[in-house]
Amino acid sequence: MSATNTTAAQPLLEMIAADERALLRTGEVARELLALHADLPLTGVRLKYGGEILLNAPAAEDVRAWAERLRSEITEHTDDPGYGSGSVFQHTSTESVIEGVRVHVWHCRILADAEAAAWRKSGGRP
Fold first, then answer.
1. Parallel, antiparallel, or unpaired: how do β-strands 89-98 and 74-79 relate?
2. Would strands 44-48 and 89-98 be described as parallel, antiparallel, or unpaired?
3. Is this prediction's pTM over 0.70?
4. Which of 110, 15, 11, 70 is nearest to 62 (CA)?
């Protein structure tokens, strides 16, 4: 790379370095969170661009336990995405911000056929 190209690329390289630092910080928060709450079950963790941690819990009850620990609200909803699978999904999640990093704990399950039929019969009400 020539000196002219290097000079022109400097702002871009600084942008990359800033993103790297932000993702590194997100990883540090994720490690701290998992160490502090090692007793709470998870099946997966993902770091997202923009300072976000996604924690996948094995069951809705586990999301509730995380919400209690993080002192955050629970969100639950059930939906039929309507793309022909016939499946109805029940989503449970909670969100919190820790040291500027958004933490999203979630679980999703497919309702059994009988549950899905009852949900549809009720007009989508719990």
1. antiparallel
2. unpaired
3. yes
4. 70
